[in-house]
Specification:
By secondary structure, the chain is an alpha+beta fold. The protein is 34% helix and 25% strand.
Amino acid sequence: MQKSFYIFTFLLLMTGGIPAIADTASEQARFDCIINPSEVVDLGSAATGVLEKILVDRGDPVKKGMVLAQLDSELEAATVKLAQVKAGLTTGVQLRRANASYLLRRQKRSQKLFRKAVISQNDMDLAETEAQLAQLQVRQEQDNRFLARLELTRAKAALKRRTIHIPIDGVVTERYKAPGEFVDDSPILQLAQLDPLHVEVLLPVDLIGQIQPGMQARVFPEAPGQPTQSATVTRVDQVADAASGTFGVRLALPNPDQQIPAGLRCQLEFMDWTPPDSGHPDKLKASPHPPRITSNAPPVPPISNREGAVIDPIREHENAT
């Protein structure tokens, strides 16, 4: 019984301990990947308030700059009108200029009377001070009008924030709010940019340094009717994941007509690139040394017959059969 166990163990190591070496010189290595949108945006509002209307729904294609939604803006519109009126008022400046002109003429008359010693020094100082104050009041009214124009700009900006615009070209993937709901810091819609798409793939750490930005790859989407696509490497992670022994690579996949849906699984092979030890079968045949058998199994002890002589387990197995 013990003899048969050792023979079986030895044969298992001989047949299963050495991995099969396939002739893959004419094949490119393929890796599992996934096609994702290049951007996914949870679109919110810079202002809070009640949502008045939403102009798009899930699945709608959108263009950058389109109006997406509108918050209730009655108060902000009234504030803009008020600021426009204030910014256009000129009566205050005209009043101050007229007063300054009168006090300046009175100051000149007071100077003539002072030189003739008709009025006192105190009266002369009062006339000069009033003229200076009148000029400062003119400048004050001019500053107030400038501030009114700034208030108008701010009111227009506040009104503009009540209208939400599309920031990217893409498609609406989710709708979180409906007209009449209150909008605060939560998103209203989710958008996805489909041109270009991002192809994400995890590669073994043995390939670090072999994959570089700018390399081309063929992408095979796992969906009926989807042709083979061409993508370009744009990002190669410089930090590998120790737990899985992999590192990430991102490729850009053009999708101008948005005919390729995102979220598909795919397979990927790099063009003009041969994986190590896969394209040189001749070198394997020319090697004078056979491959070493590496295994974590315990070594097989020598097998002896009843007379104490060491036997060959392979030959014993053949004789038994």
